[in-house]
Amino acid sequence: MTTMQPSARQAGPGRAGRWAALGVLMFPVLLVAVDNTVLSFAVPALSTALDPTSTQLLWIIDAYPLVLAGLLVPMGSLGDRIGRRRVLLIGAVGFAAVSAVAAFMPDASLLIAARALMAVFGAMLMPATLSLIRNIFADPTERRTAIAAWASAFSGGAALGPIVGGWLLEHFWWGSVFLLSVPMLLPLVLLAPFLVPESRDPQPGRMDPLGILLAVGTLLPITFGIKAAVGDGSAALAVAAVCLGVACGFAFASRQLRSQAPMLDIRLFRNPTFSAALAVNLLSVFALVGFIYFLSQHLQLIAGLSPMEAGLFMVPGLVLTVVFGFVAVPLVRQIGPAAVVITGLAFSAAAYTLVLALGRSGSLAALLAAFCVLGIGVGLAETISNDLALSAVPPARAGAAAALSETAYEVGSVLGTAVLGSILNAAYSSAVSVPSQLEPSQAAQAQETLGGAVEVAGSMPDRSAATSLLDSAARAFDSGVTITAAIAAALMLVALVVVRLALKNGGPAITEASGAPQPVPADGERQAKAG
What we know:
The chain contains 18 helices and no strands. The protein is an all-alpha fold. Helix 14 packs antiparallel against helix 17.
């Protein structure tokens, strides 16, 4: 049996120091949440300024989480080896610098490239924050509260993003939303060296360049294939990309299982609780990001709200996500972690069911109610799923576990727009009717995206025809929303059943004191205990 060495956490700060460190670690979490939400609200402005195709528009949103998802595990492993605080600070400086450059990109292709480069540094931020929390907070109750704060920071940032971003978009150009990262990361760079203790794996293995390539080669082609399949890409290309990703995934898993010091301990997935926690994390974010993608466009392009007004409209739902993230902490002691997670998924399914029933009406009250219900569900499920995932591993491997949890988050973010967004765009394109007097290029633009239809209508001299185009575009868009809502609701219900079985019938015992599973033992430890 391998003896665990003391981690840096055990000689770390006192109670006040721990919470001060958590406060500093909230800045990069807020930044990532603000960045994701602001970009969704900047879609109309981007569509007008850069005139991207529908595929480019999705890539502007997806390039960041797509590349990020492929690099999170390698960067989490890097933090375990060279120091999580060090990797966090490198990522913060790089992210701020590239964001500042992205603000001035002149066309869609260059902005996509900048977003991909931002992801390289962004991959250093999130696993480091979560793994540092795992090592700073040894007490299960303190750790769950800290993770609730960590998860709620995403929702707080999502609430702050539309308001601050809306104000910026009303007064400045679209690039101003990228400049937010500079002031938001400055406190981290200045304070982290003094308040956040360094931690690393005391017995790190060697870096595995081939393993890193295989990890990237798994997630990137699979997500690309999904985008191509549900969009207007080649079916053969989509199948080939998914097959390549699956092949790389098998090769990566086989390599990690043979390694004496794996970058990612594949055996963690034998723990049903750990696997279920990652699935909940992925699906919660999938539901939230997909909802925000269509809600932000409906509010601005159909309801006619300004970016600031649209941001304020979404605040109640995002505040409920924060509130119920903290409600989950005492609730888990009353009904257990499995019941809290299942309840959260049920709320998410109910939210999309409400959109399915009332979405065609375009009622803002119905959309607000649905978004509030979704906020409750995400707040309950995501907090506990992160705690379950982190608690299943020893502190020394927190970076890899945090990276997996974050990978699930980012894959959910990618799929939320890649799957639901692409289906919505396809449904819109097939249903919208364009006036016959439009030029072919104008007709194509109006059929590609809702933003394109709004722009074309604004340039039409015949106001009656322009009004007809806008009405058709609004009906087509809301019709597509109901299709995506049906798919999302079905996915949430299937996930609820699967997670219920996994958390109830499998995995390590869940203690009453912490509600957290015990670490997965290595094969040798399991055999020794059996003997």
